[in-house]
UniProtKB/TrEMBL annotation:
CDD domains: GST_N_family. It comes from Methylobacterium oryzihabitans. Keywords: Transferase. One of its GO terms (molecular function) is transferase activity. The keyword Isomerase does not apply. It comes from the Bacteria. This is Glutathione S-transferase family protein. Residues 1-77 form the GST N-terminal domain. Residues 82-207 form the GST C-terminal domain. Gene3D superfamilies: 1.20.1050.10, Glutaredoxin.
């Protein structure tokens, strides 16, 4: 299987973590989004990363890819069997992708991606607004949901993958969760990022 997308992307990291958890071998092509590579373009109709090519089966979107991997490589299960835990896992996948990611990524975009990789100016005002106004209510929500090591049920699941991946980019931008204000979230993120699968994913090629 080929996985397209730089290891800097939280969405690519979701798939990298799942591949590591399940021990699935793959070839990593760490290109950036909208790369003109025709094989990547064929796998990703809108040019976003990640995308895969599994022996001619092409698929884009981190969640679609993870559901595909879950059926082909069921152990360890990353989608809970219990109905309520499954519902929570799918909610947190959606929450991570569409609510948390767009804000959590702003410090990385304006302190790392734009100034260091794209040679464009970053905007510290955008970072400040994200850190002081936009992220706190999202962190409050997660803090209130944490009552153990995992977000959905009593095992590591897609919920933990999707909520945690972006915190690695926050760290790359020199920021971390304020443990005084969100103690459960800070401990949860640190423990999840320390999992072997996250360490493997964070060592993946970035370009
Ligand atoms: N829903 C997609 C989102 C993927 C996504 O937005 N990836 C970013 C990189 S982190 C991208 O390719 N952005 C390019 C764009 O938005 O045009 C997924 O879960 O894979």
């Amino acid at each position: 299987m080929i996985l397209y997308g730089t290891g800097l992307s939280p969405f690519v990291r979701k798939v990298l973590v799942v591949l590591a958890e399940k021990g699935v071998p793959f070839e990593h092509v760490p290109l950036r989004f909208h790369d003109p590579d025709p094989d990547f373009q064929a796998a990703s109709p809108v040019g976003k990363i990640p995308a895969i090519d599994d022996d001619g089966f092409r698929l884009a979107d981190s969640s679609a890819i993870i559901h595909y991997l879950e059926r082909g490589h069921p152990a360890p299960a990353l989608l809970p069997a219990d109905a309520r835990d499954l519902g929570r896992a799918i909610w947190f996948d959606e929450f991570g992708d569409t609510e948390l990611f767009p804000v959590l990524i702003k410090p990385f975009v304006h302190r790392v991606l734009r100034p260091k990789l794209m040679k464009m100016p970053g905007d510290e005002a955008v970072v400040e607004k994200a850190l002081t106004r936009e992220l706190p209510p999202l962190f409050d929500h997660i803090e209130a949901q944490i009552d153990g090591p995992f977000l959905a049920g009593d095992r590591f699941s897609l919920a933990d993958v999707s909520v945690t991946v972006g915190f690695a980019n926050l760290a790359m931008a020199g920021e971390e969760v304020d443990a005084g204000r969100w103690p459960r979230l800070a401990a949860y993120v640190a423990a999840t990022l320390a999992r072997p699968s996250f360490r493997t994913a964070l060592a993946a090629r970035r370009g």
